[in-house]
Design a protein that fits this description.
heterotrimer, A mainly alpha, B alpha/beta, C alpha/beta, A: mainly alpha, Helix Hairpins, 2 domains, 8 helices, 83% helix, 0% strand, C: alpha/beta, Spore Coat Polysaccharide Biosynthesis Protein SpsA, Chain A, nine-stranded mixed sheet, 13% strand, globular
């Protein structure tokens, strides 16, 4: 009996050793891929960074207000951010390919799924980011327009627009990610619809006078309460 | 030290060259022969005309048996034309006016009066013996053709002094130098350097295809010849950057191409085959000869340029045409056999075109708008005539006609002591055709030519641009577009003696407004339909294409 | 495919028929049938009286009028085809009209007229506003003579204006243009002016026509380009400023066309304005300024209200643009009751310069920066109205001069802010 045990042990050790031997080259392969991947990703990032610099991407993003947003979040400049993002994605991709080379069954499917998920992740991130940009831009535009047109509660209008856009972006983003799509969408629809109904009621009933004044000022010129001479600023 | 002009590398691409005989231009000392001081006095006229470079015919000391192309001293000025100091004075004066100066350098041969030949022939053991091509027989190099067929029977001449044959591609009194001899090559470089140091802007190298000869070949355009030129060019680029080499090589375009090398031989070469075809196209009233030769013209390196001309000091050469074409040209342009010489026609521009002002304008317009640097032969800008009764090619080398007075203003000497008789007939004589009377009127040929040069100089695209031919169905109309960068110019020439209507396919230029360049008036914009133009006899248009 | 040209085929055909001219007068229009007839009469009379031997053409660039504007223009031609005119004229006078693409825009109209001037190689050109109801024939001479005879490249007008007219020009445009570009041009944004063919060709070649400034504010940029390009500038006194029957433009578009263009121009022409200090007078034909003093009722209260609201509501935006010190100054001013409210010269100049610097650095969207200036300007207008309520012409002029000198004096501050911090 002792012999059997020893024999089995030796056999088991040998088997394990064989497995390890079989595994080692794959491990080496994976390491090589990962290393290569790091190198390639780094080169890609440098190239992209140079291209973006040549194309004055930072100037462009300043124009859109993206830089402002990033500065607020204490993030580096747009071109730097984009290059780093590309670097990580590229390297991640190589790592996953490397892991695949390990041929560990059970990891293959999730890896494939992950790769399938990536484009949607990108899309969602884009939507969130641009949603934030748009929200900031349009809310400010509304604020300025309201103040200059002498409309009441400009701050309120501005916040409302910002909230709406953010919610809209979030819902589109979540739909893209496949998380609770319907719920968020329905919630958004309800909020939006309620708001619209509220505004309609307000204008129709409570804000009659206000609406009248506003419309008069907008469309009927020359009939002012106080008679004053029109002055041209130019 | 003479004032040198700034070396702007490609100045020759934008240049307008004026070819002039010192002897024929203006005499300052009353000996009946034009000289450098006289030429310097007339530089204001040259500047006024608008040309930017002068090409001087040979003026080195010479027995003058080939109008100066037989040189007996490479480092001096023929006493007829003045002294070396007077030349420097003239060179300085030209440069002050922004006019560059190109001189002749005859590499291939010297006069038999040159001290080198005198030494070479004196004895077979003379150190300069190997400077020329000697042979005991006249049977070598059989493949080489005879160039001056009207006067020479062989390329070998017997020298009684040294009792041997010597090689000469031209007149027998112009023995060929031996370019296989390194001493010859070095010495000729020294000759060139002498003038480059003085400040001249370029050389026209006469008769380059014939420098080296080899048995079993036609002794033209040999690789060894190209090697000699490449060497000279390299030295010039190193020591005198910006100076220009112009090749005189009467060859087919494909054979001319090697003379540009890879941009390391000649910067410029004459486009000989184009010139007779322009005259042919005019008589045939058909653009075919012109477009065909230009289609066959190979592309040349970026820093090289063709030289275009209508006439020059030689005969209108018909070497590079077929026999059928030559016969046609003789019949149309030189019915009188005395006008023919050496496979060519020895007439000036105006007489060739029957003194027809419209045809003269058209030919000049083509000269100034086809791709290349244009050369105006002295006197053609006022429409001078010729004298076929004078021998050889001297009929087109008569004195410049300045005014209607004594000797046409050329010289104060007695008319009998002029180097050549003046033209006296009522049509081309100096009283009818002269600078002074033409300068007074805006409609004169001189004023018109001046205006033409001005318009050409206003757009660098003429000198630097590409050419794309349009092929309208009406074959009497030659139309092409010159383009460089954002500039495009449409040139349309009516080669016919009667009014023509032509439709041009300008779809590539749709949306452009045509602006006629002489009056600067607007013509309709290019649309989808073919562009209709109506043209009077021999009329031409230059349109700038502009998009607003 | 080729881009749309602003010159339609029909218009180009008409230009070909007109040929080369000596004088070209451009009249941009949009539904101006009421006034354009009178303007054309005056133009014609002016041309016939003062430039009878010169070849002239009147070109109308129309934005798509639905009324009879274009027909009225064409009817003003003088030719052998149109009989019954009792005008004595040596030459044909073409009056042609074209509708440029893209909808009514002063910039596109100017672009079309410049292109025509360049193609017809006009020596002297002018732009005349179609709603100048009191345009006089003499004004044709006043504007064009300096160009045609004295080789000036741009001639801007000088008017007799009411002291409260053109507040934006008096408080911002004139003083700031004067300080930045060192020239004392009273009307940097002229409704009518004359220019040389040289300047026309130069301005036509500027790369602005596809941008915002090419659609609104181009006339102002023309003035700036003239200075930056080293061309010769003059002013010519015309008369009482033509009163427009139409409503005044909204302040926000007006601010875009003026302050927006000015800020933008400072980027483009940095080397032209950064080195100069002070200002030089511009050669002026006639009196340099005349101010009329008829009594006028203006609503100052509203201006003050909108200033106060603006400062309050726009605080988050203003925080990114102005320095802390300036913002707190404004907030203090807004807290004060209307009778004591004063937006001092120094404060106003500092505000404007900080806005210019913020625009240059694009701290937020540039258009938003320009819009944010509007309520602040209202405050300044209020102060101006109060200060000059009982002032004489000389006092008004002296107050404006003081403001100008403040702009000039504080220019180094602007340069400091331009590339450095706030």
């Amino acid at each position: 009996m002792w012999d059997t045990i020893v024999g089995e042990l030796i056999q088991a050790t040998r088997d394990t050793w064989h497995n390890v031997l079989h595994f080692l080259p794959r491990l080496m392969g994976m390491l090589v891929v990962v290393l290569l991947g790091w190198l390639l990703a780094y080169i890609l990032k440098s190239i992209l960074r140079s291209i973006l610099r040549l194309a004055r991407f930072d100037r462009l993003s300043e124009h859109w207000g993206a830089t402002e947003l990033l500065n607020k979040a204490a993030l580096p400049s747009s071109s730097e951010l984009l290059s780093r993002f590309v670097f990580w994605i590229a390297w991640l991709g190589f790592i996953l390919v490397g892991v695949r080379a390990l041929e560990i069954v059970g990891l293959q499917e999730p890896i494939a799924k992950f790769f399938g998920f990536l484009p949607r992740l990108f899309a969602a991130l884009f939507v969130f980011f641009f949603g934030l940009l748009a929200a900031s831009f349009f809310s400010r535009a509304a604020l300025l327009a309201a103040v200059n047109a002498d409309l009441p509660s400009p701050r309120l209008v501005s916040s409302v627009i910002r909230t709406l856009i953010i919610i809209f972006a979030l819902s589109v983003g979540f739909e893209e990610l496949g998380l609770g799509e319907h719920t968020v969408l329905v919630a958004f629809a309800i909020v939006f619809g309620a708001l619209m109904l509220g505004l309609a009621l307000a204008f129709g009933l409570g804000g009659r006078d206000l609406a009248r004044q506003y419309l008069e000022r907008r469309f009927v010129r020359g009939h002012k309460e106080e008679k004053e001479d029109e002055l041209s600023p130019l | 030290m003479v004032l040198a002009l700034p070396q702007d590398g490609l100045w020759y691409k934008d240049a307008v060259i004026y070819q002039v005989h010192v002897r024929a231009f203006h005499d300052s000392n009353g000996d009946g022969i034009g000289d450098f001081l006289g030429l310097a006095q007339k530089l204001d006229y040259v500047q006024d005309l608008g040309v930017t470079a002068l090409w001087l015919m040979p003026f080195f000391p010479s027995p003058l048996r080939d109008d100066g192309y037989d040189i007996s001293d490479y480092q001096s000025v023929h006493p007829h034309y003045g002294t070396l100091d007077e030349f420097k004075l003239f060179l300085n004066a030209a440069h002050e006016r922004g006019i560059r100066v190109i001189i002749e350098m005859v590499l291939n041969h010297t006069s038999d009066q040159h001290p080198w030949f005198q030494e070479s022939r004196s004895s077979p053991s003379n150190p300069r013996r190997g400077w020329y091509v000697w042979s005991d027989t006249d049977t070598r190099y059989r493949g080489a053709r005879i160039i001056f067929i009207d006067t020479e029977l062989s390329n070998w001449a017997w020298d009684p002094v040294s009792k041997a044959y010597y090689w000469h591609r031209f007149f027998s009194h112009q023995p060929d130098l031996n370019y296989d001899n390194p001493a010859v090559r070095e010495e000729m470089w020294n000759m060139m350097k002498f003038w480059l140091d003085m400040g001249i802007d370029g050389f026209r190298l006469d008769a380059v295809p014939y420098l080296v000869e080899r048995d079993g070949t036609n002794c033209e355009n040999l690789p060894e010849t190209h090697a000699v030129i490449k060497d000279y060019r390299a030295r010039i680029d190193q020591q005198f950057p910006g100076r220009m080499l112009l090749a005189e090589a009467n060859q087919w375009p494909a054979d001319l191409r090697p003379y540009f090398g890879d941009g390391d031989e000649f910067q410029m070469a004459f486009h000989f085959p184009l010139m007779p075809r322009m005259f042919m196209g005019l008589k045939l009233e058909d653009r075919k000869p012109i477009t065909e030769i230009l289609q066959q013209t190979p592309a040349i390196p970026e820093n090289c340029q063709w030289c275009l001309f209508l006439r020059n000091h030689d005969e209108l050469t018909l070497e590079m045409v077929t026999d059928m074409e030559r016969d046609y040209m003789y019949d149309e342009y030189a019915h009188d056999k005395s006008m023919r010489l050496n496979l060519g026609i020895r007439r000036r521009l105006a007489p060739l075109l029957d003194n027809d002002r419209r045809r003269i304008e058209l030919m000049n317009g083509m000269l100034m708008s086809l791709p290349g640097t244009p050369i105006i032969y002295y006197g053609d800008e006022i429409g001078m005539g010729d004298n076929v009764k004078l021998g050889d090619r001297n009929g087109v080398r008569t004195p410049m006609q300045w005014n209607g007075g004594w000797n046409g203003g050329f010289s104060v000497a007695d008319p009998e002591s002029l180097y050549s008789p003046l033209l006296l007939n009522p049509v081309y004589g100096f009283q009818a055709v002269n600078v002074q009377s033409q300068k007074r009127f805006e409609h004169s040929l001189f004023s018109w030519t001046k205006h033409l040069i001005n318009v050409r100089k206003s757009m660098p695209v003429f000198g630097r641009g590409s050419i794309e031919f349009l092929y309208p169905a009406n074959h009497r109309v030659l139309a092409y577009v010159r383009q460089s960068g954002k500039d495009s110019i449409l040139v349309v020439n009516n080669l016919s003696s009667s009014a023509q209507a032509v439709e041009l396919d300008l779809r590539r230029y749709k949306g452009n407004i045509l602006i006629e360049m002489f009056g600067r008036n607007i013509f309709p914009r290019v649309g989808d339909l073919p562009y209709l133009l109506t043209m009077g006899p021999y009329q031409f248009y230059w349109f700038r294409l502009r998009k607003i | 495919m080729a881009e749309e040209s602003i010159l339609t085929d029909d218009f180009l055909r008409e230009l070909i028929n007109v040929g080369e001219v000596d004088i070209l007068i451009g009249v941009p229009t949009y539904n101006d049938a009421e006034t354009v007839g009178q303007v054309l009469q005056a133009l014609r009379a002016g041309l016939l009286q003062y430039f009878p031997r010169l070849r002239a053409v009147i070109i109308n660039a129309d934005g798509g009028s639905k009324d009879a504007t274009q027909d009225l223009v064409r009817a003003a031609s003088i030719s052998d085809l149109q009989h019954g005119s009792d005008l004595r004229a040596l030459r044909t006078l073409h009056c042609i009209s074209t509708q440029y693409p893209g909808g009514a825009s002063k910039g596109t109209a100017l672009h079309t007229i410049l292109a025509a001037a360049d193609l017809l190689r006009a020596t002297g050109c002018a732009i005349i506003s179609a709603d100048s109801a009191n345009f006089q024939p003499e004004w044709v001479e006043s504007l064009l003579r300096p160009v045609c005879h004295d080789n000036f490249d741009l001639v801007t007008p000088v008017y007799r204006r009411h002291k409260f007219d053109g507040l934006l020009v008096r408080n911002l445009l004139y003083p700031m243009t004067r300080a930045i570009y060192s020239r004392r041009i009273r009307e940097p944004y002229p409704a009518e002016f004359a220019f040389s063919g040289r300047l026309a060709g130069y301005f036509l070649g500027q790369d602005i026509w596809s941008q915002d400034v090419g659609r609104a504010g181009a006339e102002f940029y023309l003035t700036i380009s003239t200075i930056a390009g080293g061309f010769r500038l003059a002013q010519s006194f015309l008369g009482t400023r033509p009163h427009s029957e139409r409503a005044a433009p909204d302040l926000v578009p007006a601010m875009r066309m003026t302050a927006g263009v000015l800020f933008w121009s400072m980027e483009q022409n940095f080397s032209a304005w950064s080195a100069s200090m002070g200002s030089q007078p511009v050669p002026t034909i006639g009196p340099e300024h005349e101010i009329s003093l008829e009594p006028l009722r203006v609503s100052r209260k509203r201006l003050h209200q909108m200033f106060v609201r603006g400062v309050a509501e726009l605080a988050p935006v203003l925080k990114t643009i102005l320095s802390a010190q300036t913002l707190s100054e404004l907030e203090q001013a807004a807290a004060v009751p209307e009778e004591e409210f004063c937006y001092s010269n120094e404060s106003w100049v500092r505000t404007v310069y900080e806005f210019a610097a913020a625009y240059h650095k694009t701290v937020i969207s540039r258009d938003h920066i320009v819009q944010a200036l509007v309520p602040l300007y209202r405050g300044r207008a209020h102060t101006f109205l109060v200060e000059n309520r009982d002032a004489s012409a000389d006092e008004v002029e002296s107050n404006i001069e003081t403001l100008c000198l403040t702009f000039e004096r504080m220019k180094p501050n602007l340069l400091g802010m331009w590339d450095g911090g706030k």
